[in-house]
Design a protein that fits this description.
Distance between the termini: 70 Å
Radius of gyration: 25 Å
CATH class of one domain: Mainly Beta
Largest sheet: 8 strands, antiparallel
Strand content: over 45%
Order of helices and strands: HEEEEEEEEEEEEEEEEEEEEEEEEEEEE
CATH architecture of one domain: Beta Barrel
């Protein structure tokens, strides 16, 4: 037999020689029956919620141990449902879209209310079949301050907002808002929200006690849409909003009054080399007690690069108007802040949403970040939204 023929027989010879050993090990190794049961709840919070594909994954924010999931909807393997959490973290609201057959058939949109920590379905509310179909994005679905009302962003392609009465479990009304996008509820007034408009203004919307439109007030122009547009994501302290522009300017906007007012504006990139600019999806996170805002940033920016992942996370003191620290990261798209009083952390999605990283923050070093635990999901990606409650 030639050398090539011998090589073909070698694996079989080794397998036959090992068979008696394997049989002996199987005979001496104790066999335990698989233990199965039902988990009735995922335990007391806080919980880390991350939108997966197509579900909301729930993890332990300290260990990143997987705890459970709630299914959301997608259409033709492309679109995800939206979700929002109650202030106490005891209720999770999700949107689901159903078609009788395909995207050309009859459509139904539904809001589902889930109990946390049991993950039981508490309510199912049919809503107008107009809700936006985008990867999970804050501002597309939002609760009023008293959690009586749920606001849903619509696009048909005309923009509007559906107002859902959660107590009566029905749609109260629809408010046309042409040219405006993203719902920012007031934290002082349960009957009011703001929205960003394409002419550089903010619209302040008020509803009456029945959930119907009372009035819509457009304020003064707050930003230049052509020269330096704003990202729609906000970091907030009550009704004070902190937002960043494509060119790296921080805007402090007050939505407490009858109309939104620009209180101040300053640059965090002026005079710096390498053309650093903000980028990402949920690119902001706020530390209220320290007045520090984290911003995802990327170097060598160009027109359209605002969608790129961030290469650094900057900690900005919004009161002192200066950058406290810069931490290198690996293509991060979304961030969220969490502080249980002991170990402040920043959660980040990187590697096209396949990795969730827990960064430990150091307040004594300008809120710089140190990379900690990582949760990797092979063959799956998380989309934008992260929240801990």
């Amino acid at each position: 037999m030639n050398r090539k023929g011998c090589m073909h027989w070698l694996p079989l010879a080794f397998a036959l020689a090992a068979a008696p050993v394997a049989a002996q090990q199987a005979a001496t190794t104790p066999q335990y029956p698989e233990q199965m049961g039902t988990m009735h709840d995922i335990g007391a919070g806080p919980h880390l919620f991350v939108h997966g594909d197509p579900k909301v994954d729930i993890l332990d924010p300290v260990t990143l141990k997987y705890q459970g999931l709630v299914q959301t909807a997608r259409l033709n393997d492309v679109w995800w449902g939206q979700w929002a959490l109650s202030a106490k973290g005891d209720l999770l609201y999700t949107t689901t879209t159903y078609y009788d057959a395909d995207s050309d058939s009859n459509r139904q949109d539904v809001v589902k209310v889930w109990k946390i920590p049991t993950l039981e379905l508490a309510a199912r509310i049919q809503v107008p079949p107009k809700q936006v179909m985008l990867p999970s994005t804050k501002g597309m679905m939002a609760l009023s301050q008293d959690e009586h009302w749920l606001f849903l962003q619509n696009i048909t392609p005309a923009a509007s907002v559906s107002v859902i009465d959660l107590r009566a479990q029905k749609t109260a009304g629809e408010i046309p808002l042409p040219g405006c996008w993203s719902v920012i509820p007031s934290e002082r007034d349960a009957l009011k929200f703001a929205t960003i408009c394409g002419d550089g203004t903010f619209a302040t919307v008020r509803i009456d006690a029945a959930g119907r439109k009372l009035d819509v007030v457009h304020g003064d122009k707050l930003f230049d849409v052509q020269a330096d547009p704003l990202f729609a994501q906000v970091a907030r302290d009550g009704d004070t909003l902190w937002m960043v522009s494509f060119n790296g300017s921080v805007h402090r906007i007050d939505i407490a009054g009858k109309q939104a007012v620009l209180k101040e504006k300053f640059s965090i990139v002026e005079g710096l080399p390498d053309d650093w600019k903000p980028s990402g999806d949920h690119l902001l996170a706020f530390v209220p007690k320290a007045n520090v805002m984290y911003v995802l940033m990327h170097a060598h920016s160009y027109d359209g690069s605002h969608d790129l992942p961030g290469d650094e996370v900057w900690a900005v003191d919004v009161k002192a108007k200066k950058v406290l620290s810069r931490t290198s990261v690996d293509k991060v798209t979304d961030i969220a802040w969490y502080d249980d009083g002991n170990a402040p952390v920043l959660f980040a999605l990187q590697n096209e949403g396949k990795d969730l990283v827990r960064y430990e923050a150091n307040p004594a070093a300008g809120y710089s970040l140190h990379k900690g635990k990582t949760m990797h999901f092979s063959g799956e990606s998380w989309s934008a939204q992260i929240e801990v409650k």
